[in-house]
Structure of Cytochrome P450:
Amino acid sequence: MLGINGYSRIMTNTEISASNIFYVLLIPAVLLWYMYWRLSRRHMIELAERLPGPKGWPLIGNALEFVGSSSQIFKTFYNLSFRYENIAKAWLGPKLLVFLTDPRDVEVILSSSVYIDKASEYRFFQPWLGNGLLISTGHIWKTHRKLIAPTFHLNVLKSFIDLFNANSRATVDKLKMESGKTFDCHDYMSEATVEMLLETAMGVSKSTQGQSGYEYAMAVMKMCDILHLRHTKIWLRPDWLFNLTKYGKVQEHLLNIIHSLTRKVVKNKMEAFNKGVRGSTAHVPKEILNSYDAEADSKIEVKDVVEGVSFGQSVGIKDDLDVDDNDVGEKKRLAFLDLMIEASQNGIMLSNEEIKEQVDTIMFEGHDTTAAASSFFLCLMAAHPKIQEKVHHEIDSIFGNSDRPATFADTLEMKYLERCLLETLRLYPPVPIIARKLNEDVKLASGDYTLPAGCTLVIGTFKIHRRSDIYPNPDKFDPENFHPDRTANRHYYSFIPFSAGPRSCVGRKYAMLKLKILLSTIMRNFIVKSDKVESDFQLQADIILKRTDGFQIRLESRKAAPITE
Ligand code: HEM
């Protein structure tokens, strides 16, 4: 008879032999798969071997180097750019990543209308942005881009100026409540940028949406956290597994908040449209309407405006936002959502769902980026009091003691503030990297390298903006980097906060104009202070570049400052 001990010995032996068989079968299966994988990707592997980069392990490649918290991963990527100049490859398991940091190579990619497909990582945006402009490709992207780009033409943007002013003043009124305290300005900047988008590009009143801009902005911020987790945690990548985790449930909840706002926006706008209402239904306070000189602004010919760097792009690069005024007929000069709805009623194939997806895209791209840019700007003003003094000086010379709203002409006079803003976008580009998928081999310009089809290309904007051969003393906040004498001799693609080329940011001019009005209004009213210096900034690149330590500032009312009420 078998005793308990004898029985368990047999069981243990059986288990051992079962697990032995499993491993005996698993190891050759993995080896076979690995050999098949190498053979089927021979071309890619051969070209990759000629690219510089850290040596990896079989199967997992360099994956172990890219584990850790979000800010650790960001540092690892950044450090890699010092070990390998211009170009570096890394294998994350079977995935080949190639990092580019030379403007000559960046030009090859960004100026092309062929290499425009987004990397597969962008698919995590799909449940949120659907087939919106940011992630779509091919014919859909081309048609929608052609439709949307003219809605961000300067002539359309000029009509937003009174609403930019009204919302900037409302923000200043809210900020006054924090006067003297240390607080995180990012929350205020997010709320302001969401509300401005609602009232301008969407053309609806912020007060009729039944949901605060702040609630929407917070939901977006948490969604970005989840998307970033899916980029960095390999087990969260497959949808079926992700949906089983708590993050899947949280995402569902957040998307409810986000989509309920955008659905309401489209519904309200359609109702207004069907009643014959065109243009923004947002309320502009009387004191702004009465004092804003729209006629004088309308006389400034767009072609007379110094374009390029004033609107976030190196002089010399042109994209579809720079089309000549004559190319944009009267009919096309509609704000974004007005045009989308009109187009859908006039036989252009655009379903309500597609309109909502574009609204989701513009709401996201349009607010989180500018919220980060304005928050970094205020922190930098606090960290550099002498530079801040010069900004105050320039603003006082434009506005004197008047509390009149800013005009388009004023924004063209804000030369020093503009340099500070561009320098902010250089050192802290809100979109720190751009990723593309290559469908064909590409020969680079910086050396004898060919990027293989199938690789994921990462353009390291953050690093390009901090190259010491392009920007002397690259980590120093120096607005003079944007003095015309210095910009004239730089490679066009060495400053790309808004990307460049056919897939550049459609909101670049909108962003620059809005930021100038918002930030000048804040600076007219406050001195920005902080106990922190720039080297304290803890950076985290989760989709949009942020400070993990928060955007803490303190505001003091300017003695000679104009009062907005
Ligand atoms: C400081 C503010 C902003 C920065 C730094 C910024 C930066 C960028 C960058 C780098 C891209 C390319 C992303 C990629 O290829 O992965 C992009 C695309 C885009 N941006 Fe912006 N953006 C800003 C503001 C805005 C605003 C205000 C809007 C809309 C009102 C907007 C709408 C878009 C859209 C729709 C795209 C996708 C364009 C396409 O693929 O055709 N952005 N932005």
Q: What stands out?
A: Residues 133-134, 145, 201, 361-362, 365-366, 369-370, 373, 430-431, 434, 497-499, 503, 505-507, 510-511 surround protoporphyrin IX containing FE (CB under 6 Å).
